[in-house]
Design a protein that fits this description.
The complex is a heterodimer of chains A (291) and B (386).
Chain A lengths: L1 H32 L6 H17 L4 H24 L7 H23 L15 E3 L2 E3 L1 H23 L1 H11 L1 H6 L4 H27 L5 H16 L4 H22 L4 H15 L14
Antiparallel strand pairs in A: 1-2
Helix pairs in contact in A: 1-5, 1-6, 1-8, 1-9, 1-10, 2-3, 2-4, 2-8, 2-9, 3-8, 5-6, 5-8, 6-8, 9-10, 9-11, 10-11
Chain B lengths: L1 H17 L13 E7 L6 H20 L8 E7 L4 H13 L5 E4 L3 H14 L3 E3 L14 E3 L4 H14 L4 E7 L2 H17 L2 E8 L7 H8 L6 E5 L4 H11 L6 E3 L6 H7 L7 E5 L14 H15 L5 H20 L4 H9 L4 E2 L4 E2 L14 E7 L2 E4 L2
Parallel strand pairs in B: 1-2, 1-3, 3-4, 4-5, 6-7, 6-8, 8-9
Antiparallel strand pairs in B: 10-13, 11-12, 13-14
The chains are: A mainly alpha (291), B alpha/beta (386).
Chain lengths: 291, 386
């Protein structure tokens, strides 16, 4: 009984860690530019595909992840520069639709480069399951959770301690004021896309041995990440992390105790409930709109 | 370049051999018009892409060797992108504007069923390349199919279970057309064969983790074997999670994973997994006495030379469809649609990649359970279970 519950929790935590990374990516971009970037899932895909195909052709794993990360950052900056920035004065809805367009475009390009089949990436440290009190987990799960934790702490420090991080925070609080004190807001937006892309790409690389990578892997992960971000309160970093873990665990418990047929529905029921009953999420600031 | 030349030469010679007795000049004669609707792109592209390639390759080879009864083969292929509505409109186009003599295709069951009413009304012979049993049951006058059905897969698995003395099965099926139909057939066959279904779980086609469902199976003390019914990466995820949880029951998969892709994705976790598959995937291991031996080895060689990728059963379905159609043209002495239909129905003892096909007015597929071989994954390759 307990072992069963523990098994569900472990499964939920693993996938929840990836949702958390994706959710964090949504929040960072939202803070800097008020754009909900639906191409976030594609950054995950780029990370997963690049590391799987590069290691298959003999590149050492850390280098492959690094290249994937760099590639995703470049793509992120290009999306920001050529898709989002050009429509600077458009309404938020238009910007969101632009990012959806960008995500479809990126999937298409990825399909041309890597083909339609699934790629396999070997687990980083073997596939001998680890037994914990009757439940078992793949060693890769520890990598996923560990990497997510390290990245989340690093991002936290980045925002709290570095000048660039503080500039990004300032921009999210008040764009005009930030501009007035000499922050290059355009560069902040570009940096936020690059940062989110890097987060997503690392997430994609560590999760690839569990999920396999293919050009459409980002769709669901991106949507779940969005759910995580909304649940935590859009723009709230720690909230997105907590949201990701909650969504992951809720899914695993739902699949285990209710029915696996509703697994994906659970995340979307959560998002509906949040929008209806607490539109600011768990930790979001109360939204104010100047008329 | 040289390799290409060699393979073309081999192709011409082989087809020449296959067509012995059919001499005549091809150029002046009226072409045999074969239409095809294939899901060469979209979600079913891993089925449709090899199908399209095979149809084009063999039509070309046959024409180079002088055609059929001196008539060249004219192939028209449309890509439905995996959408049933497109399949229907392309079928209409094949019938009305291309005026084809016979249609091969419908990669998926959905595409096939969308085309069925149209071909029935227009009275054009139609050979489907899709799996589900509904295509030929009940029998439709103008509709035939080449692949094995999901029911046969379930029967073969339960036959093997019986041999190992197992009677209690846990089923995990995919939440897709293939998985749902497979689930229904498994339930029905289990009843007939006295196998008790002790668990009935599902997973989503894009799920990345099914440990929750498998934990339930693991804690089900009654289960003696597990059957997974799905296509693509899902079954590979199930296999990996299965080993992760350390479940020791025998694991069966359906014919939906009978491609090397599955072994590659699941890696070491696939060792010991059993599944029913066509002779094509174990061509090299078939005994010399097997009637399929020559056909499948030749087909594998031709395919792998032409496309430098591994042959899949789906490629074989398209080959069988084309050959059955052309064989019927020969026997019907032309392309009169009614005569052609009768000739297809009278196909008898045709040895293809899927098995030996003998059709009848009651059976528009013509395969028996013998067409399936139980294979086991051993050291990253298929091994025949004896």
């Amino acid at each position: 009984m307990f072992a069963e519950l523990l098994q569900y929790m472990l499964s939920g935590l693993t996938i929840g860690a990836i949702y958390a990374l994706a959710g964090l990516g949504f929040s960072i971009i939202y803070n800097a530019s008020h754009v909900i970037n639906f191409a976030q899932g594609e950054f995950i895909m780029i990370g997963g595909m690049a590391s799987a195909t590069l290691t298959a052709s003999g590149v050492p794993l850390p280098l492959a992840i690094l290249i994937g990360c760099g590639g995703a950052m470049l793509v992120g900056v290009l999306v920001a520069k050529f898709a989002v920035e050009r429509a600077r004065n458009a309404s938020t809805v238009t910007l969101i639709i632009i990012t959806i367009g960008a995500s479809i475009f990126l999937r298409g390009v990825a399909e041309l480069i890597w083909g339609k089949d699934f790629k396999r990436l070997d687990a980083f440290s073997g596939e001998t399951p680890i037994q914990i009190l009757g439940a078992s987990m793949q060693p890769q799960s520890l990598w996923v959770v560990g990497c997510a934790a390290v990245l989340i702490v690093a991002i936290g420090l980045f925002f709290a301690k570095t000048l660039t991080g503080k500039a990004m925070l300032a921009t999210s609080h008040n764009r005009l004021a930030a501009q007035l004190v000499g922050i290059d807001v355009k560069r902040v937006v570009l940096a936020s896309f690059a940062l989110s892309a890097a987060l997503g790409a690392v997430g994609g690389a560590v999760v690839a041995p569990i999920t396999f990578s293919y050009t459409e892997m980002g769709i669901m992960l991106g949507l779940k990440g969005f759910t995580a971000a909304v649940l935590g309160g859009l723009g709230n970093g720690p909230g997105a992390v907590v949201g990701g873990v909650i969504v992951g665990v809720a899914e695993a418990l739902g699949a285990g105790y209710i029915s696996s047929a509703y697994k994906d529905a659970i995340a979307f029921v959560i998002i509906l409930a949040v929008l209806l009953f607490m539109p600011n999420g768990l930790f979001g600031k109360r939204g104010t709109e100047r008329v | 370049m040289r390799k290409r030349l060699l393979s073309t030469m081999a192709a011409v010679t082989l087809t020449g051999l296959a067509m012995t007795g059919l001499t005549g000049t091809a150029s002046a004669a009226e072409p045999i018009k074969i239409g095809a609707i294939i899901s060469a792109t979209g979600p079913a592209s891993f089925l449709g892409d090899p199908e399209k390639k095979v149809l084009e390759l063999y039509a070309d080879r046959i024409n180079k060797a002088g055609g059929v009864d001196g008539r060249p083969v004219q192939l028209t292929v449309y890509d439905d992108g995996g959408a049933a509505d497109k399949a229907a409109s392309f079928t209409k186009r094949l019938i009305e504007s291309d005026k084809v003599d016979v249609i091969v295709g419908g990669t998926t069951t959905a595409a096939t069923m969308a085309a069925v009413p149209l071909v029935e009304r227009a009275e054009v012979p139609f050979i489907s390349l899709a799996g589900a049993v509904v295509i030929v049951e009940p029998v439709k006058k103008w509709v035939f199919k080449t692949p094995h059905t999901d029911r046969m897969a379930a029967e073969k698995v339960m036959e093997d279970m019986k041999k190992r003395g197992l009677t209690k099965l846990a089923l995990i099926s995919e939440d897709s057309g293939f998985g749902k139909s497979g689930r229904e057939q498994t339930l029905a066959v289990a009843k007939e064969r006295g196998v008790e279904l002790v668990a009935d779980e599902t997973y989503g086609a894009k799920d990345t983790d099914v440990t929750a469902q498998l934990t339930k199976v693991k804690n089900n003390a009654a289960a003696q074997a597990v059957l997974v019914f799905g296509l693509g990466q899902g079954p590979a995820v199930v296999t990996k999670n299965y080993r992760q949880l350390g479940i020791s029951l025998p694991l069966y998969q359906s014919h939906g994973v009978a491609s090397k892709e599955y072994i590659r994705l699941a890696g070491g976790a696939a060792e010991g997994v059993r599944l029913p598959a066509a002779g094509l995937v174990v061509a090299a291991q078939l005994p010399e006495s097997d009637p399929q031996k020559t056909v499948v080895t030749d087909f594998t060689k031709t395919y792998e030379q032409a496309f430098t990728s591994e042959v899949s059963t789906f490629a074989g379905h398209a080959y069988d469809g084309l050959m059955i159609a052309l064989d019927a043209v020969k026997r019907a002495g032309g392309t009169d649609k009614a005569k052609l239909r009768d000739a297809i129905e009278q196909t008898k003892g045709y040895v293809g990649t899927g098995g030996t096909v003998t059709m009848s007015p009651k059976d528009h597929m013509g395969l028996t359970l013998d067409a399936f071989h139980m294979v086991e994954v051993k050291q990253g390759d298929w091994a025949l279970v004896k």
